[in-house]
Amino acid sequence: MDEHDLGLTHDLRVMSRRRILSLFGVAGATAVAAGCAISSNGTASAPAGTTSATTSGDTPAATPQETAGPYPGDGSNGPNVLIESGVVRSDITTSFGSYSGTAQGVPMTLTLTLRDLVEDRAGTGMAVYVWHCDRQGEYSLYGAGVTEQNYLRGVQVAGDDGTVRFTSIFPACYSGRWPHIHFEVHDDLATAVAGGNARLTSQIALPQDICEQVYAADSGYSASVANLSRVALSSDNVFGDGWDAELATVTGTPADGLVVALTIGVAAASDGTAAPGGAPPDGPPPR
Fold this sequence. Notes:
Elements: H1 7-11, H2 17-24, E1 37-38, E2 44-45, E3 54-56, E4 59-60, E5 107-116, E6 121-122, E7 127-131, E8 153-157, E9 163-169, E10 180-186, H3 189-193, E11 200-205, H4 208-217, H5 222-229, E12 249-253, E13 257-266
Parallel strand pairs: 5-13
Antiparallel strand pairs: 1-2, 3-4, 5-6, 5-9, 7-8, 7-10, 10-11, 12-13
């Protein structure tokens, strides 16, 4: 049985972000908020009680380190898509290389703006690896029926403004987890495609209102409707101890396509190296 089918009770046994941070001493665990939710009319509005996701001026708070989960596809647990020719791409809806297939779902453009907090500059030249589940809640290379697919995975290099963009589909909500997107940040493309340790491994939370809109608009997400009703950001085993710096803003509509955006503050681990994204010592990580 897949780890994601074991439900919230199982997931709550695994390590929380707070425990991971205490083990690795990652700086900047206290994130100052920035997520905006999407209202029913498609406009962005800040959730109650949140504040700006910057520390001062244009400097964002450090994005917390999170578990990569059991299906990263980065060589730390099984296959390594990062060393495959073709992984550097902006459109991740299709499989590449020896695989063939296209992920169906509500169109989504993911825009991440990177800021190197160590050097206090835009994250120019940093490489970002993004992956997430399909509309059935399965991860390519691992999930039921998609082991022969590698879609919804790809790498982009940040331009002069520190921005990367991916064309994808909106991910599902599967049992026991809040809807989310995984990512790793590497110092440069050479490090990323060599399958080395990432400088930052984290996750992006998606606003509740837009999740509800997407799952109601496309019947392919039918299981997500019930799954979303049984979870909350406050009880999620990754975001439950704070999600403000990880909550994306979203514009657009399910019919016309969505733009999911987040500013990422990239700090260094306490010893100056990347914190590992593999399984914690007392069991498998949450997805």
